[in-house]
Amino acid sequence: MDTKKEQKGWTNDELEASVDAYLAIQARYPNDEKFNKSAEHKLLQGGVLASRNTKSIDYRLQNISALFDELGLKPIIHYKPKVNIGSGIAARLTKILETKGLLTQSTELLATEGDVRSRHVKPAKAQNFVDVPEDDSPPQQGVTVTRYFVRNSKIKGWILENAKGICEACDQPGPFEMDGKPYLEVHHVKHLAQQGKDRKNNTVALCPNCHRRCHHSSDRVEFTDSLYKKVKRLKRQ
Ligand SMILES: [Zn+2]
Ligand SMILES: [Zn+2]
């Protein structure tokens, strides 16, 4: 249940605007750079969220962080996961993420009932198992977390391995070393937030400069086009 009165009665439009804002912030600051929260929240208040105060918006974005955390999506670290999302809100946010292609399917459980935190326990109870599994034990039936779309760390590993420390855009080595290896970042050419897939054919290893260029530069569209030409494994999605 929602714990704060002000959180009651959020419309789907309001929730979707919050999710959109969250994804937009994440796309602009992919490496958790600091940003001006109140400016972002003011933008939202200029639109659908006109009747919500900054605190309330902040709270909702923290809810989204909690849900991202739960679903294995990378949350924005500047929004500390507030875990006491109401089950109704969690289900509605999950649906919204699903329509945006960030999840493969929603689980029946999240869509219908339950505190997000206790989802592993609920199916067991429903089946009257004697032993209720611990929260970190594998789910007992078809309702599983693995059905969610999750950034695949294997892909990330493969992409970095394959690049051998050289930026796939500018062919320069990573600008410094981290853990003894040249530092590169993994970029989804069609952004995850735009329903891009977490696949080898949508993912490249870039130096931080080229990565920024993909997201922020005036020629980002042309630059991205050049990536599709240069890196043969990439396919437009
Ligand atoms: Zn580069
Ligand atoms: Zn990127």
UniProtKB/TrEMBL annotation:
Listed Pfam families: HNH
InterPro entries from the UniProt entry: HNH, HNH_nuc
Domain of life: Bacteria
One Gene Ontology MF term: nucleic acid binding
CDD domains in the cross-refs: HNHc
Domain HNH nuclease residue range list: 154-212
UniProt KW keywords: Endonuclease, Hydrolase, Nuclease
TM annotation in the entry: none
Protein name: HNH endonuclease
Natural source organism: Pseudomonas koreensis
